Amino acid sequence: MLLFQSEEWIDKWCKRNDLERGEVLTIHQVWGLSKLWYHNRLSLDYHGRSIEQVAEIFRQAG
Amino acid sequence: MDNNESLLWQVRHFVYNHFADTTHPPNVDKTAMHFNISAEKAGEYYKELHNRHAFFLEPETLTVRMANPFSGIPTDFKVHANGKTYYANCAWDMLGIPAALHADAGIEAVCTESNGSVQLEITNGQITNYDLLIHFPLPFSRWYDDLVFT
After folding, report:
1. DSSP-H helix ranges across chain A
2. Among A24, B41, B64, B77, which is least packed by CB within 10 angstroms?
3. Residues of B in contact with A59 (CB under 8 A)
4. B84 CB contacts (<8 Å, ≥6 apart)?
5. What is the dihedral of CA A41, A46, A52, A58, to 10 degrees?
6. Which of residues 3-62 of A touch B (CB under 8 A)?
7. B81-128 confidence digits (pLDDT tens)
């Protein structure tokens, strides 16, 4: 996951690396996703996630 | 492996909390000493946790490279929190560290293409600097194909 200062820099990076543009999220969206994804990562009870649980987190994050 | 499932997840918990407490991962000897097991057995647990994507080892070693969001090596994503400085694996993980620690943070990072330095703050669960963007070059189904690239 790569950080960019603007859309223009993303386009330049994709062109330079001959790669198609992927999903682009704002820093605010990713902060929301991070809280859902990582809030329990230090817990003894965290044993990873199923595909269904991952899909639910992405759904909650919008 | 002769697997004790409960101890396996205790090892994962120890590695993660060692990262949180010290900013770096414990080596196998330290983990073995903590659990009063042999270094060989601790190494087996490390390999099993790597195979289950609980954390990731440097190739052909027992050194923890990534316990997401924490990085075992310096990166362009530096996170200051709880009086310590951590390194994150990527732009998402730089936000994952304050989320995992439930802490305020100051983040120093670099724009991938311009190489311009970027600062942002997490304070009371709110983020500053709304202008930044994060690009996910790969769909989720391909994240583990090449984790360093991802």
Report:
1. 7-16, 27-38, 51-61
2. A24
3. none
4. B22, B23
5. -10
6. 3-7, 9-10, 12-13, 16, 19, 21-28, 30-31, 33-35, 37-39, 41-44, 46-48, 54, 58
7. 999 999 999 999 999 999 999 999 999 999 999 999 999 999 999 998
Quote the domain boundaries for residue B29. Answer: 5-62
Q: Find chain B residues with C-beta within 8 A of A32's C-beta.
A: none
Say if residue B14 is in the same domain as residue B48. Answer: yes
Element (H, E) at B149: none
CA atoms of B48 and B3, how far apart (whole Å): 9
Hey, is B87 helix, strand or coil?
strand
